[in-house]
Design a protein that fits this description.
- The strands form two sheets. The chain has a six-stranded mixed beta sheet with strand order 2-10-9-4-5-6.
- It starts with a strand and ends with a strand.
- It is 4% helix and 49% strand.
- It is mainly beta.
Amino acid sequence: QVQLVESGGGLVQAGGSLRLSCVGSGFTFSEYAMAWFRRAPGKEHEFVALTSWSGDDQQYAETVLGRFTISRDNAKNTVYLQMNSLKPEDTAVYYCAADLSMSLVKAYSGPWGQGTQVTVSS
């Protein structure tokens, strides 16, 4: 059973940085593409970034391109999201997702874990 546990969120001022982590278990982590999504209050889940199983390929939403970096450590079953130059509009609960290909994980629609709250103050 796939289990994903997100952590690293918090309260930060605009322009600041945070690094999120997501630890996977219950599946062969190194064989799965991984992604980050977010859900702002009153909105649907939004794709943020994804990485291939090897970490060699990444994709980003236009809204975070150049500010966020996704990476993974397959030895630790962990995917990271380094968030720099944070803006108030980045405020959301952030979730990670796993699936067998980049296209599948980008289209992921749940179920979701508990996520980690990121709040950016202006």
